[in-house]
Structure formats: structure tokens, C-alpha cells
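Bug #77: duplicate submission created two jobs. Keeping one. Sequence:
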Amino acid sequence: MSDMSRRDLIRYGAAGAAAAATASVVAGPARAASSAVNATAQTLEDEWEYKGRKLMLRTVTVGDEVRNSLAIDGVQLHIMKDEETGGWLSGKCHYVPKPSLRAIAEASVDATAGFPLRPMTAGHDGH
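Kept job's structure:
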């Protein structure tokens, strides 16, 4: 065993944690900038109002990949395809798939109960 004291272990452990946190903060904007550079096209597919909220559906092309993007009042809503049912899930309606993007957007508005949507944080592989 080494001659390191418990105090040294705590000190070096805290320094390592701080370094790891700094690295993730630095890498985050670089990753976001990389995605922005690779986004080759955004197409507005549909825009409508539901219960006083502005909903926007876009198609975003990133490299060879085409993704759907939904926003409520300009704030992106996390959406994902439910491979089991063929429907759509969102960060607000995570357990009840809806048959279309329009339906999941409106169900998500209902789930917010009038409160503003908070900007999403990275999760599920950052999408």
C-alpha cells in the first residue's frame, strides 16, 4: 500500500473530479458546435397553434441522417420513435405512444398544463 494519507486521497480525488467536470463542460460546446456545422438543412414542415401554444415541426438533416424536430413556443421538445408500436413518445408523454408527430405535440401541450416547456438537456445519446 502507498504512503498516501486519507487527506491526500480526498485532495487528489477532488482535484480529479474537478478536472473531469471541466473536461465535460469544455467538450459540451465543442460537440454542440460540431452538430451545428454538420446540420445541412432545416425544413419547416408544419406550424400551428394548439391551446394558445405555437407548435413547429421541422425536418433537420445532419450529414446523411434526417431527424424530426418539434418545438413548443420555440423550445425544442424531446421526441423519439417507439419502434414497438410505430408511434411517437416525448419527454412529456414518455409512456403513452401517439400515432403521429402532431398528436404527440398536442398531448405534450396538454401534459404541460399551461406551464412553459423548459429547454431539454442532453440524454438518450444527446438527442
